Amino acid sequence: MAKEIVVIIGGPGSGKTSLIEQLQHRGYTCYPEISREVTLEARKQGIEQLFLEKPLLFSELLLEGRKKQHAAAVADDSEVVFIDRGLPDVLAYMHYIGDSYPAVFDAVCKAHQYTKIFFLPPWREIYTADEARYESYEQATLIADHLQETYKAYGYDLIEVPKDTVDNRILFILGHLS
């Protein structure tokens, strides 16, 4: 079996973190979403909404963190590594807010490839806002659209994960691996 570097994407509140946590609980190598730690670290420094106040800085920090996750996934001995959000997520969010970004962002996305992308569609019934998630459900849906467009622009075929229990979603994902 060839190494699988699998990214789970979707708008805010679509169930990514629950899946990653359950996959990790089952013994799979997983890398968590890093935007929460970037956001919370900025708050400690007095910047309430780094993404809204300094989107380019926020995106640069995310890009660096996700590059490190990709390198760690490539170096990992595990046959399958799951990552909560990938590099193209950074560009999708920049598209969402209508902001521009340096050409290096595009180059990084092209240089760091994943083997499979699983997309979690917006799901109103499980969506909740919290201290690090400030988007409304409608905004989360728009972000999901930008995510799909951005990943497809990099040539990825997205595998949509059905709305179901966490266990059934995991079985679906595992069933689509090599």
Describe this structure in words.
This protein has 178 residues and is an alpha/beta fold. 52% of the residues lie in helices and 13% in strands. The protein has a single domain (4-175), classed as P-loop containing nucleotide triphosphate hydrolases (Rossmann fold). The protein has a 5-stranded parallel β-sheet, with helices on both faces. The radius of gyration is 15 Å and the shape is globular. The mean pLDDT is 91. This is ATP-binding protein. Residues 6-169 form the NadR/Ttd14 AAA domain.
CATH class: Alpha Beta
Structural class by secondary-structure content = alpha/beta
Helix fraction? 40-55%
Rg calculated over all Cα atoms: 15 Å
Detail the poorly predicted runs: none
Strand composition percent: 5-15%
Number of helices: 8
Overall morphology: globular
Q: Whole-Å distance between the termini?
A: 7 Å
What is the CATH architecture descriptor?
3-Layer(aba) Sandwich
Determine the mean pLDDT. 91
Question: Which fold name fills CATH's third level, the topology?
Answer: Rossmann fold
Order of helices and strands: EHEHHHEHHEHEH
User: How does the major sheet shape up?
Assistant: 5 strands, parallel
Strand order of the largest sheet: 2-3-1-4-5
In total, the number of domains comes to: 1
> How many β-strand stretches?
5
Say which CATH homologous superfamily is assigned. P-loop containing nucleotide triphosphate hydrolases
Protein name: ATP-binding protein
GO molecular function: ATP binding
Organism: Flavobacterium litorale
Pfam family, one: AAA_28
